[in-house]
Task: structure prediction
Amino acid sequence: YDMLESRGSKSANAEDNLGSWGHEFVRSLAGEIGQEYNERVIKGADPDADEPFADLLGMVNVIVPFHVTHNAEAEAVDLLIEVQRLRNLLNLDVIDENNYARICLYLTKTADFMSDPDDLVEMLETAFEIFRKQNQYFDALRVAIRMNNDEVIPELLSECKDELMKKQMCLLLGRQRINIELEDGDDAEDLNAIIGNEQLSEQFLKLAQDLDVMDAKTPEDIYKSHLAETGGFSRRRDTGGAQVDSARANLASTFVNAFVNAGFGQDKLMTPDNEWLYKNKDHGMMSAAASLGSIWLWNVDEGLTQIDKFLYSSEDYVKAGAALAVGILSSGVRNDADPALALLSEHIEGDVHIMKCAACTGLGIAYAGSAREDVADLLLPVVESAEGGEQGMMEVCLAGLALGMIYVGKCDENVGGTIVQRLMEATEEELGHSHARFLCLGLALLFLGQMEKADAMLEALRTVDHKISKYAVIMLESCAYAGSGNVLKVQEMLHQCTEHLTEDAEHQMAAVIGVGLITLGEDVGSEMALRAFDHLLHYCELPIKRAIPLALGVLHISDPDFAVIDQLSRLSHDPDTEISQNAIMAMGVVSAGTNNSRVAGLLRQLSEFYSKEAGHVFCVRIAQGLLHMGKGLITLNPVHSDRMLMSGPALGSMLVLLHSFLDLKNTLLDKSHYLLYYLTCAMNPRMLITVNEDMSWRPVTVRVGQAVETVGQAGKPKRITGFQTHTSPVLLASKERAELGSDEVLSVSSVLEGMVILKDNPEYEPEESK
Amino acid sequence: MSEGIPLSVKWGKETVSLTMIVDGGVKGLKAELEERTGVPSDRMKLMPKSKGLWKGVLKDDFDISSIDFNAALQKANPICVLMMGSAAKLTGPKTKTVFIEDLPPEEAAKHVAEPSGLVNLGNTCYLNSVLQCLRAVPSLRKGLANYTPSSSSGDQMMASGVGVNQTNGIFMSSLRDLYNSLDRTADAVPPSNFVRATHMAFPQFAQIGQHGQPQQQDAEEFFSGLLTLAANETKGMDSIKKGFASVSEKELNGAENLIDAVFGLKMEETLTCDETTPSGDDNMQVDGEAKKEESLAIEPAVKSYDLHRKLVCNIQGGADASSQTNVTHIVEGIELSLSGKIEKHSDVLGRNAIWTRKQRIARLPPVFCVQFGRFYWKQTPDSQDHAGVKCKVMKPVAFSGTIDVYDFCSEDVQKVLKVVRAKALAEEEDRINKKLKGQAEGKTEEEGGDKMDTEEATPAESKESTEEDDELQAALKMSMEEELPPVGPGLPENFQGIYELFAVVTHKGRDADGGHYMGWVKADNPDGKVQKIADTDEDNEDWFVFDDDEVSPCKTEDVLKLKGGGDWHMSYLNFYRVKK
Result:
């Protein structure tokens, strides 16, 4: 310390001329200050009080501005973190439009590595305040969303005076499915429409026209069985004799059709006539009718007219499907008339089992993430009801799941209390129901990404006296820390997998998915998770192995990483039915919406390989449907906005899918295949559209390339590599980033994703004039 | 309040503006809308877009006048309402869809792409593979379908408990039942009863290995055993008639049971004494003439007839340098097996002499089997027990999708075949000529070109034909005048001696007592569209490979690769049938 003392006093003397001592000196000085600070804290000094550290802080106050003004923002932030005085950043007047971006980038990115949740929040809040001070409301909004701080959003919007910025913020809110309604202001109506995604369908269709993919595709266009070596042969034999349909094969085609033509408003099976509907059986009819919702996704006005006639069908299954379709098509889209609520409420209160199931699911899909109280009021009584035996429990579970989706990440006490109460009161039989897992999932979704806020609920869940309690606890915990990259939690999850269980190992399966879920969206963590999975594959029992393909899937949603596909392709030939089926499904998830030709080839091979196993073929078909989802224009990736934000409804719906994969033969391969439609909540166009302020298109050149991490690098490093230049609109793959290709325009948003508003660059000079 | 309320109704893409008369109530509003949009009022669902109106779907008994329109109008003018409804009606299905999941198993089996397999009950693949191949022989199947154990065996059963006839009867009927159940289901069938019957009928197949599991058996032994047994059980014209719709005694030419009618080859064996006939290198031209005359006079060739149920393809050459011939194709192997030298007493010489044995087919069957002589007993005098080992020849022996047996036929049969072939050749030439003519016509239309051509063509043709064998001419003449003698039962009228490969039993493994057998059977090809194998004129047709309970499709090119020479499956039994 003496050394520091003497040097420090010297530097204090040379306050005005710190640079003359050299950067290296300043850097080591900063390091020593940190050490000394820690020593004093250990010795018992109160870290909150300034007095014991007055000398140190004096030096800090000199060094930090020096760093900030000398392109060493990262060091400045590090020092402040060391001495726990991050707030001081806000009082610095040296932060200006030139360096705020780098400081905040460093803050937000390092926040992920903070083990203490308080530190994390502090860092994010600091970044938030800096953005706010610099009038960068869009970025401030991103940080606010990252913090799950919904209350400040209206404040931000009213503070922001820039109309374009406001619109851009609303676009982000729409993407994140945050349900905020602006009350006042002249443009409230416009902005509400943007938040409500009302223009999404229109823009998506325009994109499709621009890319010339409007023509409807049939399932056969996807299967391409003529390319298979023996495909043509088998089909030829089918043509002999009377035409016989396999209900399961047709059901798979229904889903493929629904996914591939999602959002396009036209297809070759369902819209031309009703013949295809009747090529499905019972629950299949329901899914077939519901597929209309997927086809007319986001297009409430026109879709409703198309679906209307099915609501008058004499078959309950068709009616239920139509009701579900109404829910699906308004997924993520707000409409003042609230058709989904208006039409579905009567069925919730009705007494037809299948209609109730459809209505619950429909509401869950339509209002995912909206936290609408009027919807919850409808669903809560269903959860509370304790009659009806098996069918009743099914309704309870589906309603619980829907509530979880609607209040995803909202920690709503009322909903949470009701569900956990229901779980505690449930009979042994009810908890043994194959769908009871969805009730638990509904509860877990409430706390998605909310970390320690779930602690109380965890304790409550532990009191449930049934083997499902273990499963529910793990699921809740993994959901709460989803996307946090929390290493301790990963270790906890891995610890669950150490026991060698062959039965009742549901909680282990949940733990494996949990590892993927927690490390999701964070590069280093997901790399480590991949290695951990390798070990699990070698040393663990079947139940854990079965969950591994799914965990791989959740780590790489819509991101067909070469090595992951390789691994899944290996697992898809596993002799164990469930491992191979899960691997096939995971391949679909990993490649969803990418049209990846390698995966397409692999799946085609698999369809031949398993041509005799109906269950496998169904999985392969669904995976093929996912692969070509929205003809390659749609992604399922819940992580967006430069991989900073995680969409709750999207991740929630992926979890619905993954947890139903854990018990395929009782869920998707049985009668509740309509749960697949929860995926529509995760669907988003993977587009970059550049628009004028009036939302009309403005094509400009953009460079698209692999994203490069630029955190803490000095100067202006390149943010993308291996780029290609296109004219917008363009499609973005996951881990790709876009940059504007010309100086002519400026983007309002700092992240080029989705719809981006452009404005003219006032400083732009045409080249000729130079 | 009697004045109208401005209303904007959004319906799909359209927006309808109207003025609502509050006094008209819901009915009035709906009637007005029905007029404007054509949507029946009972299928109309109205939902408020603006706030402060009703909740949810507008019900018919709702009292509109209870709404505070002034407040609502302040917020939005005109008031927006969303209408859902369409005039379209859902029609029922035009045809009722039949689902394969609902069908009983035997119905479902008809719609499955691949025929069902047989479960391996412990080293029974030798049996499964042969059964799958024989399944594709229709006349055998027909004969079996009508099979009933002969009454005599039934009586014996009563009398002597487990008699030979009884076991044979059980064997046959269990085979029939097995085939029936195979046709009836899409799933693999466990041939338990049949395996039990086989063990009863052929106790040698019931051997148990060291570890208590049934031992692997030779597929060919099983095949021959099955044929022998079935031949005994299907004696007489009645049984044959069951397999063949119409067959004459003449055609049968000595076949006494169904099996011989289907698989039997009547072989003509000619023995010529080498030492009395001039052959070989030492009897050269110099003194050959004299000796020939002498020997011919002394020792005539001996002809005898015999019945076989398979042809054998002997494999020689390759690594075994001692052999004279190197067999690389199935035809060479068959030729090798049909000729040979034996030592036999010669009456003329009064001592044992070397005779040349030459076998030729005197009656062609509709189906025949070629066995590859892959397994042989190798003496091992050096080994401890001096017992010798059963060895397998791994040498590749190629085969094609078709085989021409003309060269293996006896002279009588050859004569007949020649006639048909000449005819076919002539027809083919005719067809080509006509085609050429057609082209020529096209070229020289206005001239009397075609006349010229025909005039030119006819003499050329006749010239050619005069150059043909006199023998053939004679045969041709004969055919004009009287009917040709039949060459075998159930053969088509203009049969040319060409057979096609339709089933193969293959063996994989290095020794005869182990390894694995699979059956490969050609699939039906109803529409007859066939691609060629690349770079050849061989048809690439669809096949099924029966690996016990696993059945998968494959192609002719895959089958032709089963010639051996590696550790992959290689053909052991080839089944040929008359090419259509």
